[in-house]
TrEMBL record:
Name this polypeptide is given: UPF0145 protein MmiHf6_13060
A matching Pfam family: YbjQ_1
Family: Belongs to the UPF0145 family.
Lineage: Archaea, Methanobacteriati, Methanobacteriota, Stenosarchaea group, Methanomicrobia
InterPro entries (alphabetical): UPF0145_dom_sf, UPF0145_YbjQ-like
Length: 103
């Protein structure tokens, strides 16, 4: 599956199939909160949270791909990400784009 943030793929004529999306909601855990809280006081990257967000993006993208495969897509164009806080300590990562088929 080709995934791009542009609205085209060089050398390909595209047929639009529709919107595809994938999402996940991840919560922090108490162990990470303690260690990352200490890191926050002294400064530096919050590595555990970075890893959590990377994992969340990968999950959202995989779910978006599965949605596109159901439509018989060859690629997804105009891919975007959105995040939002759902509740204290939990965030949603949402990936979306346009499923296309090569003509």
């Amino acid at each position: 599956m080709i995934i791009v943030t542009t609205d085209y793929i060089s050398g390909k004529e595209l047929e639009t199939l529709g919107l595809v999306k994938g999402a996940t909601i991840q919560a922090k855990n108490i162990g990470r909160d303690i260690t990352q809280g200490l890191r926050n006081m002294v400064g530096g990257e919050l590595k555990a949270y970075t890893d959590l967000m990377n994992q969340s993006r990968e999950t959202a993208v995989q779910r978006m791909i599965e949605d596109a495969e159901k439509l018989g897509a060859d690629a997804i164009v105009n891919v975007r990400f959105s995040t939002s806080s759902i509740m204290q300590g939990a965030s949603e990562v949402f990936a979306y784009g346009t499923a296309v088929k090569f003509k």
